[in-house]
Amino acid sequence: MTGDETRIFGAPRRRQHRLLGWAMRLAGTFLSVLGALSFIAGVSRTRTILSPLGVTEPLWYRVLVVGAVIAFGAASLLGGRRLRRRGRRHSVPVVRTMADAKRGPYVLYLRPFTSDVKGAAMPHAFSRFQQVGGSLVNTSTRTVEEGISRAFNRLARVIAVGQPDEALPLLGAARLYLPLNDWQPTVASLIDDARMVLLAAGTSEGTLWELRQCLQRRAPQTLLIAIYTDKSEYDAFREKADVIFQEEADGLRPGPGADRRPTRLPLCPPRSDSHSVKWVPLPRGYIRFDADWTPHLIWFDPTSVRGWTEEARHRRMNREQLVPFMEVVIRGLAAAEDAADQADVGRCVTVAGLESAVRAARSAGAEDHTPLGLLLSGTGRFLAVGEPEDSAVGGRDARDGSAAAITMGGTTDMDSDSDTDTRQLAAQAGGQQAFMIDLSLLSVEEIVRERRAAGAMDADTLQVEFSRGGRLRGVCHHSAERAAGEPSVLADEGRSRH
User: What is the per-residue burial (b if ≥16 Cβ within 10 Å, else e) of 214-232?
Assistant: First the structure.
């Protein structure tokens, strides 16, 4: 394991206490229920407040009491909601090492810290007064960033760099904390290995540096720009981003030509009816890129859809505008990963080669629990096999094969007779480098037997799939004669969790 992978990251100013967090959530729930009942009771009494029948208190007293009950209910609803959100911050995952960050596929969320104010908001589509009125009809504590993280969790877990001085991590992506004077090398490494990078638009020097790194290190289909800002701020970002695109133009589009022009981000389109805007969605838009870095902007327009309620308009806007856009993004990501995956096919170890490595390990006296190091591409293809005595990555015992020890970067020493540099074997599969995985010798033998039983031939290659948490999910084999794009044979998930 390299020094970068064992480096300890920082932590939030306050220590997270899960029990305290759960207590705050329970207290917030009780306060919300009490507030709801008080609010309903106060509102119901407004219908009889002017009725003098059987009432001896003066009118001003009755108005004061009902108003106090309604105010108490509203305050309790808002306070309970914020208390529950505060409690949930005690359970946000905090990444402490680079190896922990790269234990499996991840989406890297980069943003200027100033956007955290909007990301931590709890908007609601029913009310134009998003911070107050919405809380009275919906007590959900889901923030804007949580909505983004849940959407991209379908691709991989989402991680982000937290503000160094924040008390507790904000809800949404898992956080890692870096020093203000030494964050760029770590972020550059995270950009290299992410499955996708989600970059929030901004004009700060840090955001523009991150944009330049993405242009230099990422495949275009694996970069997505989120827009939180209004039109004027987006135009300012667009002007500065166009300068970066122009400076990096030589490395963006392959092939010379007089008609080749630097990429320019699209202009912000006008709304269908700018006078009827009652709420603004967050993010306000996204920018994706084709394989030749041609940008495409979607600017969400709630005035272009119709519905009986604001919530219905919100759902329809997502269905008609966001969903088709994200389908194109996912197809582009799959195309980039498939291209990198196909580049790995010619250098993969075969089933017969893996069997030979297992027999050689047995001949050398290896036992069932002896760890065997496997070099995998960014898409999980078996590239090479390491010596058993050299494969104890990070000092973790592979006796329990259910949780594989992963080291990114492919830096573990391989066969000394091989002149191949493992870093040169690394394939940019959606931005992911090759990595080492430790499996017990018995687990490798079971994988080979299962693949043989499923019809794998000597020249076939193997590929593994991982869950978002980094655990081994399944193993499939690819026939050497299989046509491109034909589905592979996947092992049963229950039997493949060695």
Answer: bbebbbbbbbbbbbbbeee
CA distance to 102, 209, 334, 336, 436, per residue, from 433 (Å): 10, 22, 16, 14, 10
Tokens of 297: 């902007």
Q: Is the pTM of this model over 0.85?
A: no
Compute the distance between CA of residue 161 and CA of residue 242 in angstroms, rounded to an integer.
Answer: 25
Residue with tokens 């391989």: 414
Which tens digit of pLDDT belongs to each residue from 8-27? Answer: 788 888 888 999 999 999 99
Burial of 441 (0-12, 13-18, 19+ CB in 10 A): buried
Nearest-CA neighbor of 407 among 440, 434, 431? 434
Beta-carbon count within 10 A of 37 CB: 13
Greatest Cα-to-Cα distance within the chain, rounded to the nearest angstrom: 100
For 279-338, how does the pLDDT look when each residue is reduced to its tens digit (9 = 90+)? Answer: 666 788 899 998 888 899 988 877 777 767 666 777 788 788 888 888 888 888 888 877
Judge if the upstream peptide bond of residue 283 is cis by omega within 30 degrees of 0. yes
CB count within 10 Å of CB 107 equals: 25
| Per-residue b or e along 163-185, where b marks 16 or more CB atoms closer than 10 Å to that residue's CB | eeebebbbbbbbbbbbeeeeeee
Joined together, the tokens standing for residue 419 give 């002149």
Question: With contact defined as beta carbons under 8 Å apart, do 336 and 316 qualify?
Answer: no
Please give the full DSSP string across 392-443, using - where no structure is assigned.
-GGG---SSTTS-EEEETS-S---TT----HHHH---BTTBPPEEEEEEHHH
DSSP one-letter code for 319: I
CA–CA separation, 127 and 101 (whole Å)? 38
Using the CB atoms, write b or e for 293-321: b if 16+ within 10 Å: bebebbbbbbeebeeeebeebbeebeeeb
Res 277 pLDDT > 80: no
C-alpha span between 293 and 339 (Å, rounded): 16
Task: Write the DSSP string, 226-267.
Answer: EE-S-HHHHHHHHHHHHHHHHHTGGGTS-S--TT-----PPP
Asked whether the predicted pLDDT for residue 110 surpasses 70, the reply is yes
- Residue 196 belongs to what H/E stretch? strand 196-200
**Higher pLDDT residue, 337 or 119?**
337
State how far the Cα of 84 lies from the Cα of 32, in Å rounded to an integer. Answer: 9
Q: What letter does residue 492 receive in the DSSP assignment?
A: P
